[in-house]
Amino acid sequence: MSTRLLLLADTHIPGRARALPDAVRRAADDADLVIHAGDWVSASVLDDLEGHASVMGVWGNNDGPDLRERLPEIARRGIEGIRFAVVHETGDARRREARMTQAFPDTDVLVFGHSHIPWDTRTASGLRLLNPGSPTDRRRQPRCTMMTALADAGDLRDVALIPL
Prior knowledge:
About 20% of the residues lie in helices and about 35% in strands. The chain has helices at about 20-30, 45-50, 65-70, 95-105, and strands at about 1-10, 35, 55, 75-80, 80-85, 110, 120, 130, 145-150, 155-164.
């Protein structure tokens, strides 16, 4: 069995866009699980995504009480034998790998957001750090982005950064 994943963060709706881009909705339709690393801004984004796939998400620094009541600050789940954690913010990029290895010792993949900067690295301990960027606010990046991946038998494969 395998699980198709869509990774999102920092949707900032309605601040940066009025709604999710159509490409995100299509990708959610193709996914078994959407992982969102916070800064939804509007609970309507969570509702929208839940209409397309199962959702695992956390709240971010721009999310209000409505989202904080529905979502945790840190989410953890085993998916196809892979230990996932999701958090919005990991702090400065310098020494991120060392800090996250210490903060998430029993994790194989950590999905995070906040910076709007795509990130895909593996620490010395083997922890994989993934930031899908933002599908609505590119900031200093050339394009808005999201990620897809496949969790299969303890292996995360086919990780792709998708420009929008």
